[in-house]
Structure formats: structure tokens, C-alpha cells
Amino acid sequence: MATKENVIRETALTPTAGTRGSMNRAEDSRNSQSTNVGQTERYISAIGGGALALYGLTRGSLGGVALALIGGSLIYRGTTGHCNVYEAMDVNTARGKSGAASVAGNRGIKVEKSVTVNRPAAELYRYWRNFENLPKFMDHLESVRTTGEKRSHWVAKAPAGTTVEWDAEIINEKENELIAWRSLENADVDNAGSVRFQEAPAGRGTEVRVSLEYDPPGGMVGAAIAKLFGEAPDQQIQEDLRRFKQVMEAGERATTEGQASGRSATSGR
Amino acid sequence: MKALCWQGKNKVSVENVPDPKILNSRDAIIKITTAAICGSDLHLYNGYIPTMEKGDIMGHENMGEVVEVGSDVKNLKVGDRVVVPFTISCGHCFFCKKELWSLCDNSNPNAWMAEKLYGYSPSGLFGFSHMMGGYAGGQAEYLRVPFADVGPVKIPDGIPDEKVLFLSDIFPTGYMAAVNCDIQPGDTVAVWGCGPVGQFAIKSAYMLGAEHVIAIDQVPERLEMATRDGKAETLDFADEYIFDKLKEMTGGRGPDSCIDAVGLEAHGTSPDALLDRVKAAAFLATDRPHALRQAINACRKGGTVSIPGVYGAFLDKFPLGAAFNKGLTLKMGQTHMHKFMRPLLARIQNGDIDPSFVITHRMKLDDAPKGYETFKHKEDDCIKIVLKP
After folding, report:
1. B7 to chain A, minimum CA–CA distance in Å?
2. Are residues B224 and B284 both part of a single domain?
3. Based on the domain organization, do B71 and B160 belong to the same domain?
């Protein structure tokens, strides 16, 4: 899932990411045993860890013991504000947010996924460049509205039926090849993304590579807990791309939602 | 509507369930006129295929009458008679364009499950576990057919259902098994398993120019059918000298091609077969490849082993050394249905073959649970059951 290295290469996203990353490392080495987990995330760690530990202990199996251990380490993390994993990964979510837009280097979730679509790059580029199409295959998005030549307003689904919103702008684009965007200041969730379209050899379609970075509410622990409930960002982006391919190639998303089964209520034709 | 639902290992029941609806613009709804129980349905019935859920509607050998079409289905209209391929294919991806229809990229909504086990996902299938898409099957009164603009084949009036129903799976499956053997003049083809797919493999091998077909099974009525309808020579699977006999029958060289139409639940009494049963029971292996081992061992040098039999996960004691050192070609996979259905319909229309010869039992859908038991235990000389809703 989230990779440590900056997934956005070349010109795509935050040009200062590398510099910020090395600054973080310098700071962290000075404060290796100190607080490196943000306040909200500490609460989530403590509560989520408690729940996991309890659940694990009641299961009584080997897996249950493992869950209880993870739960225990989350409680430790919540109460002390120190996370060994973050330390090892050079991550610190305790520092205040900077004024900079989008996701700072070495922070949050970074996912890179690719898919080959059996359509010309120009067609895929055109479809994606109209951001209002994105919710058709990105299931975590509720809507995207174009608000200007390079600007758009995004509404995404959040846990418990709530939504998070942000404005984004295109920061780099090359016709039929590349689109890169990032959220603007005051976003509920800082995020940035890019998509590249590259013709595969010998008429084998177009390789589509997507990079997304975002800083979910609750930081990395939020994502770790989300993962336990099946909403791993990594898998989510993979499924988004699969649906993009289905829409572009087959014209529709394969589904069985709403089909008959012996599990549903009965009624005859 | 009524539908046959999987309820757990060795348990199916006919339930009253909601009618299928059009969910996508390329869907059609078919009123089933005839469906069949496939040998691979027994793998589900016996609990060998993971990701089945209680209440899943079974059945992937289906035909019927179109009663509703989605807005993008232009080639079918209400009232058309169609046979529906058991594989679901979009028609536009890299694999469909290469006629590798059963490897379609876009038809499995649960592709991630198959990817966990296989790395990449094959196409969706009707009524064949959630890992393969979780699509409701057609042992029911109605069936939703996705990508109906590329899958179903129209059947002209005047040809009875029973002559064309098996275009939905077992005839093309047996035929592709023979095609994969790349049969040359003078070739001997040995076929393990004389269930319906084996029977069609035997017929197809002759249709494609085999000189000699040898059929191997242990069920007397299947061997009898292979002799009577298939014109094959037969060997009893329980015979411990199968290798020697095959060698003898081929002048010491071995069969040019071997077809494994048995799959993951091979029966056998040899030590390796018994060990397979123990390992499968203890979950140390999932599949029991006794027939496949024998086929690989018996095949002549440089020959082909073609596998239409279904395998699910992991094999133990797979004789790769024999396959490697004899330079064998192994060909396998779910059938690329759409490639074969129309040419084989033409063969039926020409009178080259009447696939209904495999049918031994005709039942009402209501009696399907009894049919599964009869088929599983090969009672009452059962080889193939067709169902009428």
C-alpha cells in the first residue's frame, strides 16, 4: 500500500517534496523518542486500538492474539503520541500543517497504480480531462464540478455518510499524455494526483498510470483502520482503474448488484 | 421465479426468488426453455470451489427465449431463441479481440478475488462462485445475460432445444480440447474421462482428423457410450496397466495427444490417487490430479496434453519432470466459447453431429435437487441431465 518514496516522478506534482522530506528526516533524528503522532490521530489510535484489542481477545484464536497485539500497540501510540512505525518511515503527523497546498512530502497515503486500456490515448485523455466524469468510476467520489478552465470542486464520500470537499486545480497538463492536479488551501482532505497516458507498442492500447496522494482524516492510522474494514486506498484505486477500463472498453461497469438470489426476498413473475 | 440455489456442501434446493432485472444497457433477460446440469456443477455441489454463498443460483448451460433487452442490445429482439455461452465476455478488451474470450478483462465484477488466487482474473462465469463474478445461473425460470450483444447465439426455428443446448458449454469445451491437440493425420488421441465433455472430445477428435481415439473411464455406461456413439476404443481407469496398454496400442510410441476431461476430482485406486484424497481431506492440497499425472506420463515425446477438466487451485506431485523432459505442450483453460459456437451450430445444422446423444435424463426444475444426487453418484446410468423449468 502506501509507499515510502515519493511516487510522483518528474514534473508531476509537488516540486518541493524532496527538500521537505530531507528536512523532516533531520528533525526526526533529533526527536526520535518524542511525539510524532498528531492529536486527533492519537485519539483514534487509542480508541481504535482498544476496540481491536478487545475484539482480538474475545476471539481467542491465534489471529485474535495478533489483533490484540496490534490493538495494544495502537493504545501505546495513542497515549504516548509516539509511533515506531512512523519513526521508521520518517513520518511525523504531530507538526502543524503548513500553509502549502496539497500533500507535503513523505506524508499521508501515496498510491501508484496502472492499467492498460484497449483504446487510443487521446480518447482516454479527453474522458479523464473532463473531471466531471471521474465519479463514474471513482466510487469514493460523490461529484466533481468544473468551476473554471483549470479549477474544479470535488465532493468525496467519508465514513458514516458524511462528505469531505475541496477545490482543486490542474497544475500540469500535456495533451493526450498527462494531467496533474492538487487540492487548494482549506481542503478538508489535502490531496494531489496525476494520470499519464502512454501508447503501448504494436496497437496494444494505452498504459494508464495514476498517482494519488492524500492525507485522510486521522492520518495513516485512519487508513490502517479503514483497511481493516475493506477500504484500503490501494485496493480502492486499483478498483477505480478497473472500472475506468470497463467504462472505456465495454461501455459499462460489470455488476451483479441488484440481481436475484436465494438470499433475497421472494416474489414471482 | 423458481431457481435452484446452492445451500452448502451437498445441498441444493429450489427456491422462489425475485425475477432478474436488466442492470446494464448491454443486458438481456432470457426465459429459460432448457438448462442442464454440468459435471463442473458437481465440483460446486461437492464443495470444492471456494467463494460460493448460500442462496447462489446455479447453472451455466442455458438456452431460452429473449423476453427483454437493454438499450444497447441491437442484435437481439424479444422472442428470439438463443443459446447462452457459460463464459461472459465484453467483446472489446485485448483478450476478446484476440478470441481469448474466457479471459475477458471486463466481465468479472469480483476480479480482485480471482487475482488474489491467480494473479489475474479470467472472465466472469454464470453460476460458478463469487470469485468468478457471482453471476446468477440459469437453472431457473429466467436469466439475466450481461453483454448480450456479443454472447448469445440465435437459433433458427425448427431445431429442437436438445440438439443445440450443449453449444452453451460442453460441446465447444470438448471441441476446443481436441483443437488444442493440433491433430495431424494418423494421430492417436487418448481421452481420460468419458463424461459429457469427454464424449464431445472423442467425437471432436475424429471430426478434426484423428486416426484413432482411446477413451478411459471406469463407469461402464460411459465406456459403452464412448464405444457406441464415439467409436472409441476403451480402457478401464481401474486397470493398473493403462500406461502399458496405451503404449501397446500405439506401437510402443504413446498417444500423440492426451486429453484430461476429468479435472480436479479424479477418482482412482492407485497409491498416488489415495494419497491425493488424504491430502485434499486434510487441506494439504485442493485438487486431485490423478488422471492428469497419468496423461502426462502416457503422452508420447513432443506430444500435447490438453486439459478441459476444471482445476481450482493447487496440485501435489505434478510430474513436471516428465512433461519437461519429453518436451510436452500443455494447453488448458476455460473454453473460448464465442469462437466456437457459430461454427459448431453449422456442424449441427449440416448433420455432422447431434449433441443430444449424451442426454440420459430429463427432469423438471423442481426435481433438480434429486438430479444432483443421481448425477453425483452416477446412479441409474446417469450421464447427462437436462432440466425444463
Report:
1. 9
2. yes
3. yes
Class of domain A109-250: alpha beta
For chain B, what is the radius of gyration of the CA atoms? 20
Is A251 within 8 Å of chain B by CB?
yes
Domain boundary among B295, B313, B332: B332
B72 in reach of chain A (CB within 8 A): yes
In sequence order, the 6+-apart residues with CB closer than 8 A to the CB of B139 are B3, B4, B35, B37, B57, B58, B59, B127, B365, B368, B387
State whether B88 and B198 are in the same domain.
no
Give yes or no: residues B165 and B257 share one domain: no
Prediction ipTM score: 0.91
Bridge partners, B35 (sequence order): B62, B387
Residue of B nearest to A268 (CA): B1
Q: Do A267 and B144 touch (CB under 8 A)?
A: no
Confidence grade of residue A226 (pLDDT, cut at 50, 70, 90): low
Judged by CB atoms closer than 8 Å, whether chains meet at A261 and B107 is answered as no
- B286 and B368 belong to one structural domain: no
Higher pLDDT, A164 or B143: B143
- Residues B222-252: b if buried by 16+ CB within 10 A, e if exposed: bbebbeeebebbbbebeeeebeebbbebbee
Same domain, B157 and B191: no
User: Which residues lie closer than 8 Å to B214 by C-beta, 6 or more apart?
Assistant: B188, B189, B190, B191, B232, B233, B234, B235, B246, B249, B255
> CB-based contact (8 Å) between A33 and chain B?
no
Contact call for A262 and B3, based on CB within 8 A = yes
Closest by Cα among A165, A142, A20, A158 to A91: A20
**What number of residues does chain A have?**
269
- pLDDT tens across B36-89, in order? 999 999 999 999 888 999 999 999 999 999 999 999 999 999 999 999 999 999
Span B362-382, pLDDT tens digits: 999 999 999 999 999 999 999
Given pLDDT bands bounded at 50, 70 and 90, which one contains residue A229? very low
Q: Mutating which of A116, A234, A261 best tests the B interface, going by the most B Cβ atoms within 10 A?
A: A261
How sure is the predictor about B288, in pLDDT bands with cuts at 50, 70 and 90? confident
CB interface of B with A, residues 89-108, below 8 Å: 90-94, 97, 105-108
DSSP assigned state of A176 = T
Interface probe, candidates A199, A235, A243, A259, chain B, greatest B C-beta count within 10 A:
A259
C-beta atoms of A242 and B54 within 8 A: no
Most A-contacting residue of B5, B11, B17, B31 (CB-CB within 10 A), to test interface: B17
Q: What is the pLDDT of residue A32?
A: 42
φ and ψ of B104, to 5 deg: -45, 135
Q: Which domain CATH number covers B29?
A: 3.90.180.10
Ramachandran angles phi, psi of B166, nearest 5°: -80, 0
Q: Where in chain A is the domain with CATH 3.30.530.20?
A: 109-250
* Interchain contact, B18 vs A266, CB within 8 Å: yes
Confidence at residue A68, expressed as pLDDT on a 0 to 100 scale = 56
Q: Which domain holds residue B123?
A: 2-169+336-388
